[in-house]
Each structure stands twice: as structure tokens, then as C-alpha cells.
Amino acid sequence: MTTTFEHAATATPGPVGRPQPDAEVTAAVQDVARRSQKASRVLATATRAEKDQTLHALADALVAASGEIVTANAEDLARGRENGMSDGLLDRLTLTGDRVVAIADALRELAALPDPVGEVVRGQTLPNGLRMRQLRVPMGVVGMIYEARPNVTVDAAGLALKSGNAVILRGGSAAASSNTTITTVLRAALEARGLPADLVQSIDAYGRPGGIALMQARGLVDLLVPRGGADLIRTVVEQSTVPVIETGTGNVHVYVDASADPATAVEIIMNAKTQRVGVCNAAETLLVHSDAAERFLPAALAALGGAGVVLHGDEGTRALAPESVEVTPATDEDWATEYLAAELAVRVVGSLDEAIEHIRTWSSGHTEAIVTRDLAASERFVAEVDSAAVMVNASTRFTDGSQLGMGAEIGISTQKLHARGPMGLAELTTTKWVVHGDGHVRP
Amino acid sequence: MTTTFEHAATATPGPVGRPQPDAEVTAAVQDVARRSQKASRVLATATRAEKDQTLHALADALVAASGEIVTANAEDLARGRENGMSDGLLDRLTLTGDRVVAIADALRELAALPDPVGEVVRGQTLPNGLRMRQLRVPMGVVGMIYEARPNVTVDAAGLALKSGNAVILRGGSAAASSNTTITTVLRAALEARGLPADLVQSIDAYGRPGGIALMQARGLVDLLVPRGGADLIRTVVEQSTVPVIETGTGNVHVYVDASADPATAVEIIMNAKTQRVGVCNAAETLLVHSDAAERFLPAALAALGGAGVVLHGDEGTRALAPESVEVTPATDEDWATEYLAAELAVRVVGSLDEAIEHIRTWSSGHTEAIVTRDLAASERFVAEVDSAAVMVNASTRFTDGSQLGMGAEIGISTQKLHARGPMGLAELTTTKWVVHGDGHVRP
């Protein structure tokens, strides 16, 4: 859901190059991964009660070490200021006593969620008497590569532990001191509970080559989740041989159908665009059926403009803009852009087909919404728009794990493999087929 | 499930290199993929009845074109003989009238299976009144890269179509003439039913660079499934930026526990090793608890040796071998080898822990079985062995889609992401979140 990314792009070009890893760092990171693998086995068979008590213990330890963490964070902040970090980034990097408490509380909330491990996904007795079950089990070793916000360190560790996995963390260098202190606190708390400290390991000490070694530790790392901006995610996807889940890019559309109630449509686009900008489920383009344009667009553009949204429109849109609202001409770049800001592209389309075609051309497959009173139009939109989430008469902002009742969320996947849309704890597990027989052999 | 692979390894080294694709071929293959994407939209909203009728029409067309297909196949066989292809491979490449009928029948069996598309995976009404459903939908475009057996061309097309996907085929050059003819027949049959021929496309004409372009067509191809030997699979995994599902490597273990009934254990290892060699769910290593060794191993080794199984054993095993049975000393290479032949490694272990540790060290995570009468031992084995399938008192040969009641199978996944173990039609789908509101906005 976050958008800023301070890992510089690597020097290696484009989609087909993979950087050569450093042999020494590779060996060290593989050793880290092997220790994670070993530690993960202890957790794989832990009960939910044991895991939840551990999450509470980690939360307690963080609060107890709050002073230490804030001191380490001050070093990161000082370095950030020296390096000219923006106020926004500095704010996201900042930890205070209250923020540490909030981070610890997130672990306690995780403890309250059901445990996905052990769930029977399918099961039956086969005609030959074999008893077959498909059970949810932990992945094993999960890697997380993320940007500077130090809360992600705790969040990632908590999500991994709750789902029975060991975690290897690679945080942004801007938060190095905070992350080191937090990791040390978490590891000590694990040990104090008789669990392997190696359930939580950091490879920050190995710098960028360490990150590359992690991406290529196939067979040792079961899943890699990048959390951060588009550049970070692209880099991880392109350079990994380890399975990756791509998260977060949202070029999100709201389509106002011919039959839409204008007031509802204004409410939905205002919520989708302005309730929180800079998140992946915020709207970036508004499509309006020409039959609805005259009764909807003037009010919508006035409301959006009044809320400080910078507007780019096609000719049909600009013709309907109130005089008080500036709408600059939209280009293909506007249709392609995830603004992540108070900025919106607006286009009048001649039909539902044209709206669907626009979405097919420009969407990143995250979330699209239709506002309509026409059942057939809603059904076609749902069937033909190929995105992780499709909303009918609801804001795109609902594409969110907690809003959809899944509890904590690792991210929003825009890929089709393994997880699509909000990813909860279950998406950090895999399955195992367990078959019981009585000496059954295959005829 | 197949094991021989006639794509030569590429010249590009190891796990971190990716070959540079050919620009012209890349553009052509991307164009193919775009046409597949377009065609897939037509199928995505087709009913099960329409898809099943199409599968029957394809089957009819294949049988009608049987003569043509067998003639084309004769060209492949002649080329194979010229190139010194082994008898086994020639047999797998051969198509006869009867074999074409069998291939067509497989399409009719697919038609009889339930349609995964449209299944509601999860659904609820949220406290705020939003109605939320997670539905199964087709992936979109599925790529298949496979070896010489031309039946895979039909099989892959059928599986993809039944699950609502367009398919791009890259077959082995050894079967080029057969595959070209089959693809032409399938495409014509699709058109005759008013469906886009581009639902089934081949990129064989673009040779190896075409395969590489397919592996790197991220964003255009939703899933790539390699079917073939270990080299093919490794190449695809390492060179792809498109999501891949790894299938098929099975270094499979049978562990005979201290409490095992010796007769049951002999039946299970005989079935697991000899019922069919050369398949990924056949046993490759037999582990025997030392307490069971004396009453089990002499009979087991005699039975295995009598069935022509070449045996490699540790010292404990060799000491218990009947005089008539030769057991050569086993090395680490034996523990690591997936023989895919009438050959077995045998080791006596001192405990269940030692057996689990051996499996952790050497298994490929496909299938392992325990033969035991001890409940606690069975439960520890199931919990601690981290493989796609774990059998208790049943042959490892049951790890198979049709044996486990899933119907047709695309392969057996040994990875943890998206699909683990036998992959059926559902594994060729993804999900879509569909949310209905009444003007809901996020507070």
C-alpha cells in the first residue's frame, strides 16, 4: 500500500538481466536461510496458543525496549536529515513511544486472529477406502524486502510467525539502526520463550548484494514478498528465482454507468479519490458514460476540484467542467498513471464496452468499480473486467484485508498466482496432502 | 510425470544468467500472446455447456483427421530414427489410429469433469452490508512448454480450454510435424464452433528463442507450466519472469517403522518401486528402522531383487541381504538420485528422527510414506515431513490427480506457491473478489 522507495534501482538493465551475486555474501545469506529453515521446523508444529503467547511476549518486549528503539531511530532520523530526506519520509521513519505501543498492539491484534495452519481445505474418503485430506501448513521460510518504515519489520515478523513461518528481513538502509534494534529485541524475546531466535533474522548487514542473494536462494526461501514502491517490486520480481508475490500497483478506475444515480456516483468517486490519496486502492481514473455525463460531471468535477483534486480530462469532460474548475487536457500518460496523489484523470465514454476496453488497456488489474442501477450492466462489468477486485456501487477503497473481513493483510496482490487481491495469513501458508490407508497399493 | 527431455540445455550458464532474447522473435511471440489474451476473453465468460461441447467437437475433429495426424507423425518418426532416437522415445512419439482415439477420449473425459470457473471460494455479508464473494475465474493465458510426446499438445489444450484459458504451446522439435497438424486441426474445430482459433496457438515456428520470449512475456502470459524432464523444468524456472509452476521431480521415500507389519511393508515398497518405474511418484529410497530390519529386510530385498530391482544399500542393509541378492554399497549420490528406473537405495536408520532427518536432507518434497502400526509415529511423520504428499500405510503411487479423485492432472507440483501436489483444473484458475454495495463508501 506504500509508495515511496529509497532502494536505488540497480545498475543492471531491464527485464532480462540478473545481477551476478557476490559469492561470499551469497554463502552467508544461504547460511542464514538454512538456519531459518531449521528454526521454521520448530514453529511448524507449534499450537496456536503457543504462537499467540509468543506474539504477546514480543509485543511486551517491544514496549519494554521502547526507549532503546526510539534512541536507535533518532540515529536513522539524523542520518536522514543529513541526506536531505523529505519531511514525508522522515515522518514515516519516525518512531515515538506511542508509535512503538501501536506497533506492539498490531502484534496483539494478530494474536486474536484465527490460525490458518491445520485448516482442512479438502477431504474425503475415496472409493478404495483411502482417507485423504489437504491441510494448510506453513510455507517454511518467508523473505520480506521492504522500504524504510521500521513498523514493517515488526509487522512482517508477526505475520510470518502467526502463520508458522520463519522470516528473513531485508529492510531499507535508511532505517538500519531502528531495524537492528527491533530485530535484536524480537530475537531475545523469542529465546526467552524457548524458541529459536533464528525465526527472525535480518540480512541488512549484507547490503544490496545480500538482497540479491536472498532473491536467488531458490530451494532455501519458499516465498519472497516485496513491500514498497513500484521500483522495489519490479526489481524483486525481475531478479528473483525464489517465488515472489507481486503487490500493490493500483491504476484504479471508477466507471459511472448511464443509469447511475448521480449523487451516489459523486459520493463514491469522492471517497475513492479523496478519502486517502497515496494508497493503491484509491481511484486514479474516472470513466463516465456519455448519457450520464451532463447530470453527473458538473457536480462531480466541482466537488473534486473543491477538494483540491488536480483534474485532467478528455474533451467531453472539459466541455462539462464548471468555470470555477480547471481541467487540463488528458493524455495517454494520464490514463497510464497511478498518481497516488490528489490528481485524477477523467474521460467520457460512449458505452459500457468502451469503458471496459479502456480498463483493459490501462488498468493494473487491482480494483475497478461500476456505479449503476442497471443489473445487466453490473453483471457484464463483473464478468468482463479482469481485476483482483470488482466493486458494484461501492468505493474502491474497500479492497483491503481488514475491510473485507480477513484481518491483517500482507499486501494486495495484483498477480494471479497463489494470491489475488488482499493477502491475509492464509496466503502465507501452503498445503500438504495427507493420505491414510490400511496397506493400500495401486492396482 | 514424464522424465525424458530432448530440449538441449541452453548455452547460458547457471541459476543467475538469463539469455538475451531475440528482438524480432520476442515481438512476434508477444503478438501471439496478445492474440491469446484477446481470445481468452471470449472463453472466460463461456458456460460449462459451451466448453464441454467444444471439447467433444475437438475430439471428433481429431478422430476425423486421424489419417492426416498419423502421416505427419510418420515424418517425425523418420527424423527421429535418422537422429538415432532411442526405442523408448520413438515409442512415446508414435501416434497410431488407436492412440489418436485415446487422445480424443481424454478430451471427452475432461468434458465430464466439473467446471472450476464460477465456484464461490469464500463469501459473506460484511457488518456494513457489503456482499462479498471470492469467485474462481480463468487465469487468462497459460503457456505450456513440453517435450516430444504429441499427446501433451491435445492434453494441454483441453485442460486450458476446460478451465477457460487460452493456451500457447511450445512443444519439442522432435514432434514438430505431429504438433503442427494437431494444432491446425484443433484451431479449425474451434473456428467451426464460432470460437477464436487463437485460443490454441503454437510458437514452435520460433524455435528456442520463441520459448525464451514466452518465458519472459510477463504481463501477457499469466502462467507457464513446463511438462517434461528435470532439465526442461530447471531451464524454465530459471529463465522465466512469467510465473511458473514447477512440476515433477520426485526423490520419493518409503520409511518402514519399528512397528510396521512386515508383509504390509513389503507390499507397499514393491508397489511403490515396481508397479511403474520412471514416474515421479515411484519410490527411490527405502528407509528401515533398525528394530524392523531383521524381520523385514531379508524378505523385502529378496522380493525387490527377484523383481529385477538393482539395489544399493548401507552396511546395515547389506548385512541382511539374502545371498542370492546383490546389494552394492550406497553412497550419498544414491540418496540424492531419482533413479526413475528399477533401482532403489536402502538404508537402516536408528530411529524415526533419523528417518525424518534423512528425508529432510535428500527429499525433493514430492511424496513420502510411512509404514507403521504406531499412532504417535504416524502423527510425527505426517507433521514433520514437509512434502507435497505424506502417505500412512499406503503406496507413494497414490500421489496422482485421478487416484486422489481430482480428475485430470496437469502435473504434480513440488513447489509451495499456488499449487502443491497433484494439480487439477482448479489450479489453472485464479480468483476475483466481487463486492456489491448500495453506494457504500469507506468512513
Automatic annotation (TrEMBL), chains A, B:
UniProt-listed CDD domains: ALDH_F18-19_ProA-GPR
Signal peptide: none
Assigned EC number: 1.2.1.41
Main location (coarse class): cytoplasm
Keywords: Amino-acid biosynthesis, Cytoplasm, NADP, Oxidoreductase, Proline biosynthesis
Pathway: Amino-acid biosynthesis; L-proline biosynthesis; L-glutamate 5-semialdehyde from L-glutamate: step 2/2
Subcellular location: Cytoplasm
PROSITE patterns, A to Z: PROA
Sequence ranges assigned to domain Aldehyde dehydrogenase in this UniProt record: 27-303
Top EC group: oxidoreductase
Annotated segments matching region Disordered: 1-22
Catalytic function, reaction form: L-glutamate 5-semialdehyde + phosphate + NADP(+) = L-glutamyl 5-phosphate + NADPH + H(+)
Superkingdom assignment: Bacteria
PANTHER family: DELTA-1-PYRROLINE-5-CARBOXYLATE SYNTHASE, GLUTAMATE SEMIALDEHYDE DEHYDROGENASE
Similarity-based family: Belongs to the gamma-glutamyl phosphate reductase family.
Function noted in UniProt: Catalyzes the NADPH-dependent reduction of L-glutamate 5-phosphate into L-glutamate 5-semialdehyde and phosphate. The product spontaneously undergoes cyclization to form 1-pyrroline-5-carboxylate.
Protein name: Gamma-glutamyl phosphate reductase
Organism: Isoptericola halotolerans
Name of the gene: proA
